[in-house]
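A.,

Following up on our hallway conversation. Structure tokens first:
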């Protein structure tokens, strides 16, 4: 055996010894670190660890109820585009002063408004008059002071007396004893194009079962009822009507004809919402905690549902919490019930006690004329019996 072989065997034996020692050292350190981690875990607060685990599990399932909206986007004309393919256009209305007007003037206005509603022949059109009220913090008082005549054109003692009177009005305005309001008109027209996807029950059921299976995987068998409700909502309410660009243009033009009929027949002064005004109005109504709306995307087909449904709805009973605001709905039965009359809206708008933030909505829905006549005939037969 030569010298080189002996040197190689010696080096290999030394390397094997060093490796064995290093491995034993690593195993001992692993045992010590495992024991240390276990002791620290036992000493750790159990409640904090459970909260951390719950937070990790909730990353894929956020806390709170899932919200939905039918608003999909806003086109260049300022129309709301809904998920079912319908369109909504909004107008600012200038309210006429009819509180102390003569009866003939009020009756003529009622008749002209009735003719406006008759001009809509499309079935299931929704027309809403929204009267928004909020506390006036001094806007009307500031406009009054700005409209005053110049000092040189007024008698100074009378001007001083008028200023003293405005001081009491200013204190009442700071105490939110006055209301500011506006009136808007919203018209929603359902539009169906020949190339729109079918809404047959068979197609809805075909989409319902995959959505139900997806919800069942999330909630398990214990949440069967909630899974069925969520899947049915997604397949029947949230189903998005997708159109080609030419089909969308044709559907928008068909809706514009109905909007033009309302503008032509309406006896009140109308000013349509711009695209930015429509976005600001819809965003603020969906998210009450926000004070300003973000910049609207320039793309007309942008999906806005995720931006609108970012605020939590909680609570039950007579009211719910919409963000930081309690919200309730008071519904009145339609005329001709003996309790409700056409002049009730005029009484509500002139009520000085209703100065809190609220909205009064009067809604009209166009029906199928033949079905409506049949229904009235059936009611007449029931009354005759």
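Then the amino acids I'd put at each of the 385 positions:
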């Amino acid at each position: 055996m030569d010298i080189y072989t002996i040197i190689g065997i010696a080096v290999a034996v030394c390397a094997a010894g060093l490796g064995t020692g290093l491995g034993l050292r690593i195993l001992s350190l692993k045992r010590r670190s495992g024991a240390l981690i276990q002791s620290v875990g036992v000493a750790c607060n159990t409640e904090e660890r459970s909260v951390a685990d719950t937070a990790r599990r909730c990353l894929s399932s956020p806390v709170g109820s899932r919200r939905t909206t039918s608003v999909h986007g806003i086109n260049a004309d300022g129309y709301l585009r809904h998920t079912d393919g319908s369109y909504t256009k909004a107008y600012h209305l200038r309210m006429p002063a009819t509180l102390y007007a003569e009866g003939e003037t009020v009756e003529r206005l009622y008749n002209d408004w009735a003719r406006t509603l008759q001009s809509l022949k499309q079935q299931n059109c929704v027309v809403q008059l929204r009267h928004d009220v909020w506390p006036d913090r001094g806007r009307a008082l500031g406009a009054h002071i700005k409209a005053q005549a110049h000092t040189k054109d007024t008698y100074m003692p009378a001007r001083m007396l008028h200023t003293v009177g405005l001081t009491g009005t200013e204190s009442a305005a700071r105490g939110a004893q006055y209301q500011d309001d506006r009136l808007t008109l919203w018209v929603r027209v359902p539009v169906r194009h020949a190339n729109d996807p079918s809404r047959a029950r068979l197609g809805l059921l075909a989409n319902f079962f995959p959505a139900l299976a997806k919800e069942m995987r999330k909630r398990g068998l214990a949440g069967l009822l909630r899974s069925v409700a969520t899947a049915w909502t997604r397949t029947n309410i949230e189903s998005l009507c997708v159109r080609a660009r030419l089909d969308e243009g044709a559907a928008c033009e068909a809706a514009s004809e109905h909007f033009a009929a309302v503008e032509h027949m309406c006896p009140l002064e109308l000013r349509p919402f711009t695209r930015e005004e429509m976005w600001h109005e819809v965003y603020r109504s969906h998210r009450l905690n926000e004070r300003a709306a973000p910049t609207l995307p320039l793309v007309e087909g942008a999906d806005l549902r995720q931006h609108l449904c970012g605020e939590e709805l909680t609570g039950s009973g007579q009211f719910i919490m919409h963000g930081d605001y309690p919200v309730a709905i008071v519904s009145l039965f339609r005329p001709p019930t003996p309790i409700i009359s056409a002049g009730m809206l005029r009484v509500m708008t002139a009520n000085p006690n209703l100065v809190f933030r609220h909205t009064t909505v009067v809604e009209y829905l166009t029906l199928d004329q033949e079905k409506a006549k049949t229904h009235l005939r059936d009611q007449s037969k029931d009354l005759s019996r």
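DSSP finds twelve helices and ten strands in the chain. Curious whether your intuition agrees with the design.

B.
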